[in-house]
Each structure stands twice: as C-alpha cells, then as structure tokens.
Amino acid sequence: MFERFTRDARAVVIGAIEHAERAGEERVDEPHVLLALLDREGSRAAFALAALGLTGQREAVVRDLAEARRRGGLSRADTDALAGLGVDVAEIVSRIEEAHGEGVLAAGRQGGARRSGRRPFTRGAKDLLTMSLRTALAHDDRHIGDEHLLLALTARPGVPAEVLADHGVTHESVERVLWGKGETKAG
C-alpha cells in the first residue's frame, strides 16, 4: 500500500516513525501520525489545519496528547464512560503514579535503551493507514495524500480525533475545507 502514498503522505509516515523514536516508544501509534501531520508545511493537510486555526496551537496539542498518554491512552470519552460505572480514572492514575512513578501508565514506553531496528505500527496505526486508503478511494483519488491521513484520524474514535476536535478540527470541517462547495479549498 505504501507505493500508493504521495510524497507528503510518505513524509508523514516517516515523521511518525521519527516521533516514536524520539519518544523512546516501542511502536508507532496514531498520536505519532498526528504529530507528524503537525510538522508538515505546504501540503493539503497543512493547508486544512491552518485554515481551521490549528497553526500556532502545536504545543497545546502536544500537551493534550501527553495528558491522554499519562492516562494510559484513554480518551475523555473512555474516562467519562468509566466514571459512569463509578471508576475515577484520575484517582487511579494518581495512586499508581504515587506507587510506581509519574507517567508509568504511558502506553508503549520502554524502560531503557532500545534495540536498533524497525518500529512496528500498532493495530490502531495500521487501521488508520487502511482507513486513509478507503478515504482516498471515497474521494476518487488514486493516491493517498496526507489529507487522507488527516481525514482518517478525524474519523476514527480515540485520542487524536478528540484532541483535534477540541481544537476545532473535525472530520466535517476538514471535508469542508478540502472539498467544500464554494468555500476556501485546498488546490
């Protein structure tokens, strides 16, 4: 499938791998893809993110992703659902961190030096890449661009979509910016 990726989409995938490496993560996951999308300039996804006002909010997005990682990767929707069952995730995280150290629940972390080699993608990240293909095909595009990766991120439930929505970037708003009727569109 990688041969169907445009230069911009390939740069996002490579950037996601680099984000995982810098963070000492064992595997590449969806938040790494989001961070790589935020690094892009001059692409369709970068245009959409800028048009939706995400430019200049990178640090806030990074902070929101880190907070979700601290909760073990749970989204607020997950946390709210557990609260409905009487489970206080914040209290559990506090107790675990008190006993085992801050950030211990950060999913996918490795405790020491990492062996060199390829970082595999999580199931969620693989599903994201597959969804980006479906998104491209739904728009009659033969190649997968970084805009399709962004759309797939906004369409999948989970932390990246939640963080993007908190900053005004939803599936519908990205669709409107990229393929809207009579509105500002990416060229």
Automatic annotation (TrEMBL):
It holds the Pfam family Clp_N. Residues 2-187 form the Clp R domain. SUPFAM superfamilies: Double Clp-N motif. InterPro entries: Clp_N_dom_sf, Clp_R_N. PROSITE patterns: CLP_R. The keyword Transit peptide does not apply. This is Clp protease N-terminal domain-containing protein. It comes from Streptomyces lannensis. The lineage of its organism: Bacteria, Bacillati, Actinomycetota, Actinomycetes, Kitasatosporales.
